[in-house]
Amino acid sequence: MRGITYLLGAVVALTVVVVYKAHPSEHSDGEVAPIFGVKIPPGYRDWRLISVAHEEGKLNDLRAILGNDIAIKAYREGKLPFPDGAIIARLAWSYIPSEENNKVFGRAQSFVAGPATNVQFMVKDSTKYASTGGWGFAQFNDGKPADEALHNTCFACHVPVKTRDFVFTHYAR
Amino acid sequence: MRGITYLLGAVVALTVVVVYKAHPSEHSDGEVAPIFGVKIPPGYRDWRLISVAHEEGKLNDLRAILGNDIAIKAYREGKLPFPDGAIIARLAWSYIPSEENNKVFGRAQSFVAGPATNVQFMVKDSTKYASTGGWGFAQFNDGKPADEALHNTCFACHVPVKTRDFVFTHYAR
Q: Three-state SS across B40-69?
C-alpha cells in the first residue's frame, strides 16, 4: 500500500510539473479577435524560440517568433504543411538603444527590447480556416484584439510565402 | 498488482516526457570551456525566452537570451541575486536583410537571423565562482569553446551591472 502511495505521489508531482509549465501566460484575458475568432493561447510566453528579427520603418521593433510544441516539432523536422494544432506567436517590442550596453562597448551599437508593441498569432486548422491556407490570424495590442480592418490584411500579406505554408519565419539553428 | 503496473507505466511515461524535453540540444558535444569549466548545457535551445537584442558594429548580430527554469523563475519574481543553478544563454545569429520580407513591406526594413555566430552562457554557482560574482562564463563557436584570452574578458565586462547581479539583460514583458 505504501508503494502505491509513493507511486501516486510521483504521478501527482510529475503531472503538476507538466500542467504548471503549460499555463503561466501573463497576457491571456480571453477576448476573441475578429474574423478568425482566435484567442490569446494560454502560456504562449513559455513557448520555445523559432527565431528573432528586427523591423525598421514604422514598425521599428525587435521581435521573437515562438512556437507551441506542434509548431516546433514541425519546424525541426522540416515538415510542411504545418499540422493542425500548430500555433506560431510573433512577439514584438519597441526597438530602443541601450545606453548601459553602449558604455560597455564604447560605442553606440546596442539595441534592446523596450515596451511590448503587439503580439500576433497564426493558428493552424485546415478545416476551420480552409479559405485562408488553413491558418487563422490574430493580433492583440496590450491584450486587446486589433480591429477587423487589420485582420483583413493578414492572409494576403502571407500569400507570397505560400510554398512554405504561408509562414515567413525560418527556424534559427 | 495491475493497479501498480498502471501507475508504474504512468510514472515511466511522464518521466520519459520530462527527460525528453530536457535533452534535445542540437549543439552539446561535451567540450569544456577554459577558466570556468563550463560545458554546453543540454537542451538550452528549448529554454524559455528572456529577451532579444541587436548589436551593430563588429558583432552585427541578432540575439536571443534564454534562461533555464531557475533563471526564468528568478527573472519573473524579480529575485536578485540569481540563485545557484541559474543559467542564462545568449544565442546570436548574423544580422541579414530579408529580401523576401522587404518585398512584402515594399521597402528595405526587415532583418532576420542568418547563420549562428556563437553562444554564450552564464552559470550561477556562488561557491565555485565566488571570485567572479558567483558566475561562470563560457562562449562556444560552432560547438567549440572559445580560447582562454576571450574568457578572461567576460567578468570585467559584466562588472558595470553589478547591482543587477552582473546580468545585462532585462526580462521582456
A: CCCCHHHCEEEEEEEECCCCCEEEEEEECH
Q: Does the beta-carbon distance from B56 to A110 stay under 8 Å?
A: yes
Residues of B in contact with A45 (CB under 8 A): 48-49
Of A46, A57, A168, the CB nearest to B107: A57
Best interface-test mutation with B: which of A1, A8, A52 has the largest number of B CBs within 10 A?
A52
The answer to whether B115 and B94 have CB atoms below 8 angstroms apart is yes
The ipTM, to two decimals, is: 0.83
The predicted-structure confidence for B42-60, as pLDDT tens digits, reads as follows: 999 999 999 999 999 999 9
pLDDT in tens, B133-154: 999 999 999 999 999 999 999 9
Contacts of A90 in chain B (CB under 8 A): none
CA neighbor of A129 nearest in space, from A72, A67, A81? A81
Query: Which DSSP helix (H) or strand (E) runs through B150?
Result: helix B148-151
Cβ distance of A4 and B8 shorter than 8 Å: no
Convert the pLDDT of each residue in B57-85 to its tens digit: 999 999 999 999 999 999 999 999 999 99
- Separation of alpha carbons A104 and B95, rounded Å: 21
Q: A77 φ, ψ to 5°?
A: -90, 0
